[in-house]
Amino acid sequence: MDDRNSRLTLAFSSGGHAFSHFFMLIYPTVVLALESEFAAPYHELIALMLIGNILFGAAALPAGYLGDKWSASRMMVLFFIGTGVGSILTGMALNLFQIAAGLALIGLFGSIYHPVGIAWVVRKVANRGKALGLNGVFGSIGVGLAPLLASGLTDIWSWRVAFIVPGIVSIAVGLGLWALIATGRMVDDKIQMATAPSEASKGDMKRGALLLLITVSCTGLIYQATSFALPKMFETRLSEYLGEGLLGIGALVSAVYFISGATQLLGGWLADRFELKRVYLTCWILQAPLLLIAASLDNALLLPVAAAMVISNTIGSPSENSLFARYSPPKWRSTAFGVKFVLTLGVAAAAVPLIAWIHKETGGFVMLFVVLAVFAVTAALAAALLPGRGDGGAAVMEKERPQPAE
């Protein structure tokens, strides 16, 4: 395989991961500035994300299918340009309906990334755990930058700029990728997709895939709910430590996700060197107690506990994606990842009405984190039942190392 093509694939996929999470998390911070402008309560405004979040998950399956049957790289061009256009239109919205429509477009085009971009890396990069760890770091960078940049742009200019400027950047990146494809500097490796060997027996594939569908659903719900709730949670519980405006809140949320992002390199290292099931299960076992502790804190200790809570969720991502690759047919990998993210992100869309309902009924987030802890325990039980494997990730990587193109 061409090394340059592999590096470009990893670069654009990692950038796409950052963009996919960044665009989905601009609004949970910006929404705090809309309560006065549109004279609407928080639970009503946050609910405007629902359709976009449903599409972010539900459209992943057709996106993955097109990635397999048409072109992964061209689908990524569509991802960058489409999400950019959706973000710009959201920033130009004049009423709540238009905001919801713009967020829906972001969700629709944003759905392309996870099934196509992750499978793109899995197919083309030799050291899978390391590559997925780096890719995960960029995803967390996107999560971390979203509240920081969104709050900063909102405080300095307006909430509209917080959507329009990133949209312009995304379109520019998409045009750059299109230019590389048009000049032949990036190509799809269809031959390797069709001839790559399976990584597990049919029985283990069925069992592993079924159990992973349970765990990835829990991953998506917990991750999405915590990332959406943290800005409001910090505002209400840590207000005495923060100044006026949104920048202090955004900075704290960003700190949590920057720290968790860096740990995904460790997660990738663990995935390459140790048995994947053991790494994955350990991450799940840690989550439930951390969620319960975060539910009860209303002082400065909330920040490090929140960071540990998010780390326990994200550090297992390279292992999770490596396990999903192991239990999916190589030539249908984008479609398989599409199924995964329909569940992961589709179930995650339930985070929006869940947060809105619990906050409306209780005025806080204690019950939310208790519910999420129950899901973490469920996922840990499912992870414990995954098929075992004596060799670690490094052995799998050696077996699957891509061969030079003929």
Give the secondary structure arrangement, pairings included.
Layout: H1 3-24, H2 26-37, H3 42-46, H4 50-58, H5 60-69, H6 72-91, H7 96-110, H8 113-124, H9 128-156, H10 159-182, H11 190-195, H12 202-237, H13 247-273, H14 276-296, H15 302-314, H16 317-326, H17 333-348, H18 351-362, H19 366-384, H20 393-400
Helix pairs in contact: 1-6, 1-7, 1-8, 1-9, 2-9, 4-7, 4-17, 5-6, 5-8, 5-17, 6-7, 6-8, 6-10, 8-17, 9-10, 9-13, 9-16, 12-13, 12-15, 12-16, 12-17, 12-18, 12-19, 13-15, 13-16, 13-20, 14-15, 14-16, 14-19
Tell me what the structure shows.
The chain has helices spanning 3-24, 26-37, 42-46, 50-58, 60-69, 72-91, 96-110, 113-124, 128-156, 159-182, 190-195, 202-237, 247-273, 276-296, 302-314, 317-326, 333-348, 351-362, 366-384, 393-400. Mean pLDDT is 80; it is low at 191-197 and 390-406. It is globular, with a radius of gyration of 20 Å. Helices cover 80% and strands 0% of the residues. It has one domain (3-400): MFS general substrate transporter like domains (Growth Hormone, Chain: A). The chain has 20 helices and no strands. By secondary structure, it is mainly alpha-helical.
The helix count comes to 20
Mind summarizing the main beta sheet?
none
Secondary-structure-derived class: mainly alpha
Q: What are the low-pLDDT stretches, counting only 5+ consecutive residues below 50?
A: 191-197, 390-406
Q: What would the average pLDDT be, to the nearest integer?
A: 80
